[in-house]
Amino acid sequence: MASTAPSPKKKPSTILRITLFWAVVVFGALIVYALTGNHENLKQVPISDVITQANKGEVTKIVVEGNQLTITPKGSDKATQTSVKDSSSSLQEQGLNADAPVTVEYKTPSATGDILWNLAIIIVPVVLIAVFFLFMMRQAQGQNNQAMGFGKSKAILYGDDKKKVVFSDIAGNDAAKQDLEEVVDFLKHPKKYEALGAKIPKGVLLVGSPGTGKTMLARAVAGEANVPFFSISGSEFVEMFVGVGASRVRDLFAKAKKNAPAIIFIDEIDAVGRRRGSGMGGGHDEREQTLNQILVEMDGFDNGSNVIVLAATNRADVLDPALLRPGRFDRRTNITLPERKDREAILKVHFKNKPAEENVNIDALAAKTAGSSGADLANIANEAAIIAARRSSKKISNADITEAFEKVAIGPERKAKVMNEDEKRMTAYHEAGHALVGHVAPDSDPVHKVTIIPRGGTGGVTWFLPPEDRNYTSVIEFKDILARALGGRIAEKIIYGDDRVTTGAGSDLRKATEIARDMVIEQGMGTKLRDQVFHEDNGGMVFDKITHERPYSDDTAREIDTEVAELIKEASQRAEAILKANRKSLDALAEELVKKETIEETEVAEILKDAKLPKEAALY
Ligand code: ADP
Fold first, then answer.
1. Domain range for 597
2. Furthest-apart CA atoms within the chain: distance in Å
3. How many domains, the chain?
């Protein structure tokens, strides 16, 4: 398996630094040598003076070294003067008497010392300058390299066994695993397929909500096939500089091909792979170039290259059709949110290494967590362990798990937030309103818990939980959801009057309007506009804004608004009828909430046992 460990070679800049250091040391030594030792400055005198002094007997010794004379005067044992004679004539020829009392010593000039010295003076500065320039050039190149490294992909290679994921590490997701087992086989035995003339698929799209285990599955494919796994996120391709994305794609594919057979995993492919089109003004040219490069690289795979690209997204509908054509991401694996038994399996995986009390009920948690992804469940298990550790307990209890679940699902309790008595009462009526309408409405999920302790940005919470997993929602169920969502605001209205309602209901109303619009526009659940959807397509991007193409007339738009308004009106009338008809139960629940702050499922049912659905609120 390929390794990414850098080789222990010295960096060129280190070598240069060392060279420069020694050059400076040598040059320094030469200067020291030049300034010390035998290089005293002797007095320079004309040759005629030397001859005269010698003839007079004032000089005891003359050393002749080429045409250089070193003169030792009488009464001294050290040379004090120098002179230069004419190289063509001897001392006698220049006037030295033959009987002058002077010793003339002839030495062959020590050429080496001088030549070396002269050479050093010339060469060392040149070498120093050369080294300096070389160093500067390297430095500049280094920066250049860094700039070029920008275009390199930041793909992470997972190859070592410690991080290896295999299919058995992934709980549930059986259908997806089955699909991907085929890919594992392609990677393991490509010859088998080639022999029959089959083309090995180049791209598999993993489609599913965030946290459903797409990355894990892709890694497991690599783990099972025992091939390197290059992982990169779509958003990493897009940088400030034009052309970087495309260059990263090129680099990523080149790396993978070098390590083939291999898996490339592109997370969030929708970040680059959105439908191309009306990108006016060039704002999205960069993204398009990146996408084009991905397409080019995938087309460029020859059959033998054996690199398979897995890409993950939760928005397959926004992808460019060119990505989905045969030969590219022509295979698709849908990864759904886990069902109850899969949730139980996932929870068991994540509680495996966490000591829990005997009576801990994983099954009950699995039942409560409909709609949670694998990542949510992993998060709950982790939070439970943290909560248990904070209590300094050695084992995780059921209460820890419940607290962890609630923390993950609706945010942590904000007990520290102080509410005054009036606000507390108002919140209690608001939440009791939701709970009562939800409890009485025949097609609503049962109330799981009501609390007036602020949680995750809300003043209080009324929590409805489906008794079992549900894949579809009917019109009457939607209508009950709308009525209970408006129950809070209507309760405030009944108790405090029309103009004393508060901002506490803001998010309820937004949610209700969203649901009503979704019913009419996306689900064909309007009264007049039944069985027809008015989905607005994301037309494309114009100067960073998504343009909507409205595939219906202004009249229809008005009709949609009317339908939405009617749904909301009907819901608030039903809520009002329910609350007014059961005023005693409403008061009782609100009182209990003020007292206890949090009331659980069974207690809520007990307090509201006499509440009934009035005729005006019945849908059938
Ligand atoms: P995605 O790529 O779909 O967003 P990931 O593969 O990154 O999701 O999953 C996030 C985390 O959720 C994983 O690290 C794992 O802990 C947990 N998880 C998700 N699905 C499963 C599963 N089926 N079995 C076990 N753990 C899972």
1. 421-617
2. 154
3. 4
